[in-house]
Amino acid sequence: MAPARTPANWWRDAVIYEVYIRSFADGNGDGVGDIAGLRRRLPHLARLGVDALWLSPWYPSPMADGGYDVADYRDIDPAFGTLDDAQALVEEAHAHGLRVLIDIVPNHTSSEHAWFREALAGGPSSPARDRYIVRPGRGPRGDLPPNDWSSVFGGPAWTRITEPDGSPGPWYLHLFAPEQPDLDWDNAEVRAEFESILRFWFDRGIDGVRIDVAHGLVKAPGLPDLGSLDAKLLDSVGVGDHPHWDRDEVHEIFQGWRAAADAYGETRAFVAEAWAGTPERLARYVRPDELHTAFNFDYLMAPWRAGHLRRVIDESLTALGAVGAPATWVLSNHDVARHVSRYARPQPEGQQRSLSQLDRSADLELGTRRARAAALLTLALPGGAYLYQGEELGLWEVEDLPEDVLQDPTWERSGHTDRGRDGCRVPLPWSGDCPPFGFSPDATTAAPWLPQPEAWKSLTPEVQDGDPASMLNLYRSALSARRSNPALGDGTLTWESAPDSDVLSFRREPGFRCVVNFSDEPVALPAHSGVLLASGTLDGDRLPSDTAVWLAL
After folding, report:
1. Closest Cα to residue 71, out of 169, 155, 180?
2. Distances from the Cα of 416 to the Cαs of 23, 405, 408, 421, 453, in angstroms?
């Protein structure tokens, strides 16, 4: 049985809903989501049954990377609202029983941040440059980058500074876009500043923080060349020797952050976006004196295959259990293709990262059926879970956005070969039978910042609300059962023998079993005293293909 939930350990089994704020709901009619729109839709989230919200960056930003280029960490971008609006949101969310987590972007600032403007304006001797990673170039005139590092978004990871007098200067590092210069975390001023930023938001009632690129803050001394290593670290290096990803020295930073958070009464929880080579490396981020949880990217990228998923679940529970941390399960987020569309294709043997790696023919009916089963599997596993906005509606990836509306920096920096992440960030449909589907206050306001598919008219909450078999009501029922069933949430599981190698079956005590059929044929259900919830229609005591069921024992 899972340990009793208390205010101090709420994060161990919380279901947290990611709000990509630009695309959630528009409150002022300009076509961009904002705090006012989110406040208007809080009843939807409360009724859904989640425990908390995680908000994508809402800070002032030039939006070179959708807000992950932060110009001021202590304010709200005018497109989203004001600090007073943010405070009202936190208070209203708390009144609905919802905690609020925000995004912190510590690896880099915006090139429009006051610190970076000061670094450029101060000239070669400016101490402000010590806050960033600025190095002389190679070659006789310094006109070659300092090393061979490349940007995650494509192209080199270095841009040369033009000095105030117009002369070419040294180079600054940006592991992402040129508008996102990397901070130097060996600088004591940088470390002190971010602990101060955390306290600024904790003092305003924020309940936790998601840490962007948590694995990337520390760079190797001397900034050695990558050579054959993967710049993106979506393949593992796994031993802490990558020159800019998952270095051992990063953990000292997070020990300081944990101490700052623990100074508050009720737990202020952290979740790390940390790409690590192995589950054991990931577990280092969630040791008792560091962060509370970390996203499980191995699970997110797993194909819809029973054996692969069981291995990921076992490895995750073992590695995280060794340090006393809960697992955190996630199917989609703002950086990956929606899982309905990933599951709608023939499944690979290994990890699935993007639709470009999969067969391009999509069977959305199949993808939706698998997504329903994946929801029940995910919410039955020990630990916590993250939902990405719109997955409760069954939204799929929008793969045919016109090229002239694409805004992800990956599109430009890849030479128009990688469409980037805009397809999973299309604004949500809420009501009505034509765009903007209630995303904005009325149909006469500005069009949404990315166009919505006409076919989404059948997926709005307005349509799904009255259909007991809808995806929305499946999520509502599962989250309600999860909250009320003492077997679910934090704890352990016990695998059981299954009638087929393509079936996963496990018990959780007291008296709960989850069965998922990945095979092409129906399978007989094990003995049970009742069906709590099924992701599809059962055939008597037979479980159809690509269906999951929760059983009472």
Report:
1. 180
2. 23, 13, 11, 13, 22
Is residue 363 annotated as part of the catalytic site, yes or no?
no
| Cα angle, residue 4 at apex, residues 391 and 206 outer, rounded to 5° | 55
Distance between CA atoms of 429 and 461, rounded to whole angstroms?
A: 8
Contact 22, 178 (CB under 8 A): no
Structure-token pair, residue 202: 């904790």
Q: How far apart are CA 514 and CA 380, in angstroms?
A: 7
Whether residue 184 contacts residue 131, with contact meaning beta carbons closer than 8 Å, is answered with yes
- Cα–Cα distance between 30 and 441 in angstroms, integer? 9
One DSSP character per residue, 409-431 reads HHHHHTTSS--TTGGG-PPPP-S
Read off the pLDDT of residues 52-106 as tens digits, 9 standing for 90 and up. Answer: 999 999 999 999 999 999 999 999 999 999 999 999 999 999 999 999 999 999 9
Q: Which of 262, 266, 433, 467 is catalytic?
A: 266
The answer to whether 422 is a known catalytic residue is no
Amino acid at 384: G
Which candidate in 18, 65, 212, 408 is catalytic?
212
Sequence letter at residue 421: R
Tens of pLDDT, residue by residue over 470-524, are 999 999 999 999 999 999 999 999 999 887 889 999 999 999 999 999 999 999 9
The residues, any chain, with a CB within 8 Å of residue 6's CB and separated by 6 or more, are none
Closest residue by Cα to residue 212 from 77, 55, 320, 332? 55
